[in-house]
Amino acid sequence: xxxxxxxxxxxxxxxxxxxxxxxxxxxxxxxxxxxxxxxxxxxxxxxxxxxxxxxxxxxxxxxxxxxxxxxxxxxxxxxxxxxxxxxxxxxxxxxxxxxxxxxxxxxxxxxxxxxxxxxxxxxxxxxxxxxxxxxxxxxxxxxxxxxxxxxxxxxxxxxxxxxxxxxxxxxxxxxxxxxxxxxxxxxxxxxxxxxxxxxxxxxxxxxxxxxxxxxxxxxxxxxxxxxxxxxxxxxxxxxxxxxxxxxxxxxxxxxxxxxxxxxxxxxxxxxxxxxxxxxxxxxxxxxxxxxxxxxxxxxxxxxxxxxx
Amino acid sequence: xxxxxxxxxxxxxxxxxxxxxxxxxxxxxxxxxxxxxxxxxxxxxxxxxxxxxxxxxxxxxxxxxxxxxxxxxxxxxxxxxxxxxxxxxxxxxxxxxxxxxxxxxxxxxxxxxxxxxxxxxxxxxxxxxxxxxxxxxxxxxxxxxxxxxxxxxxxxxxxxxxxxxxxxxxxxxxxxxxxxxxxxxxxxxxxxxxxxxxxxxxxxxxxxxxxxxxxxxxxxxxxxxxxxxxxxxxxxxxxxxxxxxxxxxxxxxxxxxxxxxxxxxxxxxxxxxxxxxxxxxxxxxxxxxxxxxxxxxxxxxxxxxxxxxxxxxxxxxxxxxxxxxxxxxxxxxxxxxxxxxxxxxxxxxxxxxxxxxxxxxxxxxxxxxxxxxxxxxxxxxx
Amino acid sequence: xxxxxxxxxxxxxxxxxxxxxxxxxxxxxxxxxxxxxxxxxxxxxxxxxxxxxxxxxxxxxxxxxxxxxxxxxxxxxxxxxxxxxxxxxxxxxxxxxxxxxxxxxxxxxxxxxxxxxxxxxxxxxxxxxxxxxxxxxxxxxxxxxxxxxxxxxxxxxxxxxxxxxxxxxxxxxxxxxxxxxxxxxxxxxxxxxxxxxxxxxxxxxxxxxxxxxxxxxxxxxxxxxxxxxxxxxxxxxxxxxxxxxxxxxxxxxxxxxxxxxxxxxxxxxxxxxxxxxxxxxxxxxxxxxxxxxxxxxxxxxxxxxxxxxxxxxxxxxxxxxxxxxxxxxxxxxxxxxxxxxxxxxxxxxxxxxxxxxxxxxxxxxxxxxxxxxxxxxxxxxxxxxxxxxxxxxxxxxxxxxxxxxxxxxxxxxxxxxxx
Lengths: 308, 382, 419
Prior knowledge:
The complex is a heterotrimer. By secondary structure, chain A is mainly α.
């Protein structure tokens, strides 16, 4: 297929294709990070993860409308406010859900799956009632639209780079929080041995609630960022859920590094295959490869030794 | 999970008296009450729901007894349904019926996709016996491959759930994408006759309803047999303390694979009966959403109760239909609420409610009537 | 059945009363009686449909919930508007239309199930409904088996013709061929790149487009790509677009993927003012979600756009906005859904009956001159003669019509040479 093209054309395409893969990678990391915390650290199967993301997207939608009509001077900067609000809204809802629902189910992880599935149905219908069944269009500030001309033939989309930036920041933030802060130490202690953690004076209930809220809040940020590349509608969240779970499981559930590694390998595979094959085939092959590898190596890429 | 606290009893009747009563009740409702009360349309609906209860029944075995939650039962339901639909479609695509096509005699969707000859893997489905055999064997083989691969490596619990979910997603994309061979997103539609017998008439629906109900009862009895056998008890033991069973020298993986295969076969029977009664099959039964909904049926009925699975399926679907008829815009709230309620308040579902609130009273009555019960019947793990 | 007998009895009574009155001079003084003198029920309904002396029941069957609710809401609104207008004008054969609405829940068997309910339990005289091909395919055998009547609003892939269905949207050749001719002539297009969602409608549409491009226009298709429904990452295919540099990007991506595709296209620096993009899947409804800015400059080919300038359409848009709010947009399918109740009413009146067989027999050749799209005529193959239009998307979310086929295009659901 490359016979007709000049070397220069091809090399710029490969550069752009590399960026396409990186953007997909960032999207996957952002999707999976919240779940990696909730599923990986707490063992809760949160099927409503996609709905938490969409809550963030709707917050962004509301924000863009508000800034456009009330504070049009600040419109170019609204996206940052929107992301903060998305984090707070999804995080608050997450903590509420943890208190009302999840905390009763820690001993029955498979049941969290059913309960959160019910929750996701309720949230979807709530979005539909509040925002209408149709997809809403989120207005973007003009500086986020378009692409950077690197050379004559290489163009990199700005929103893609923005997503990459957000992903990097949040990943670093989460890593610091989990591995360098007191709170992170408590979370890891609770994961490894709940009873002992409680015995040394850690308020495990509080840690649980905050961890769940944090995971949901990150989902909210992800949803907010995705308004730039994807659609926002009551059922958009379901599009992400399978991919997200596979990334987390493939990475080895309890390892943040694993999540990143798996997001990287899956996104690069998919993006490369998509370039050489058709979209549907690429998707099926990627998923098959992931499932195949998981059958051979069920613990995922990276594992954390945990005393059970 | 409720843990069995009762020791294994030696005198182990096939079914306890109360279970016979449950069976009689179920048979009475399905075979007598519903056909008497409902018109042909509603009865056909109930028939459709009952096909889902095959899946729920399978889930009771592999999830309730075996502790393996599969979120991909739609795959097996779909396989059964598609295999059946292939036979019916070939029969409906006679040269006579399809003379408008550029290649008469092949299914319409193949013609639309420029396929000019029947693909090789469709050929055997011209035979009814082969189809019926395939409905049972293909899903079992598929489940066997998945099960062996995963259980040997001790994949369990949540991982298994997520991997089966991914398999359901893959199969849906495949079916939708390979529309020349599968009918794509529209599925295989416009099925007419089974070996020359028109399945679209009311009388055919009636007969199929009873065949379906009969098969269901047969499956329940078979499941009960499994449950009472040594195998069933090993399954229960495995669910509760897998390592101890393994250290006792049992091949844990084989038992799990068996439970998973059995669940797959049940689901496939349900799928085949679904195709027969509804008249088409589409990828919307293969994916993640239907697979999870089927788990919910089992959960609502009580994941440990074979009869509960059937009642749960009927209840949820009845609620779904009537909710969506009277409040089309609100039924998801009701449905979502139901799931949460069941998980939080009634983890053992309908069967749990029955066992804690209804059965004790009934048993007292029965005992009062029969002054000399042979043995005080202990409540086993279920 | 019992209900049927009751009607017969009632109307027999009525008839006798009317006969008694016939000689009375008073009747001449009451011109308004023409409404009340509706034909007796026993005459207009011989097959046990839900028709009384004052009412006739019609079903609406769309998804109010689930993923398709996004698209089908507009159709529901249009059908309700049409029915309320018909009722205000005196109804059909002197009877007001009573609506029974059922939710297909974006689930195909539910469509079949509810269709059966509407026909068997509710005895609906006609059903306005279905949206996706899959839902129609699921419900079609039900309509054929129980001899119901379905008015189907969506533009679709063709390859179907049923006695019991009227297709008020365009079939694929009507929509596609004229626009390909236009783009070849107007933009001097030589190469095409197809991008679609992976299911039957895009695949069939692209097949027809490819045959037309290769065999009739003698130009080239340089790429054809399909993505699973709901796919949201298009950067790789956008790079392929940059590599192959087609004259025309021809798209039939649907649903949430649509939104993602156009946003990413714009972000990747493909300027639709310079790059010709022709889509057959974007109406005003979709632009709402995509955002006018993201798709401005793309060409869409449909038979109807909200911005059409004609008195019928202005009246229709005003009425629609009055009923459903100023902000609601009206897309091609919404307009096609609006036609259904009127076409049915005209056929009933021509047939002088609600009986499905008579209504079907009376339909071919019916002309609807008040259609917002201008003028339509029912073809004997149950599709509509209609014009095709190409319009450019504006940042406001509306379209500006740049081309209109001079004549009505004949529907041809089984196009020879395109299969």
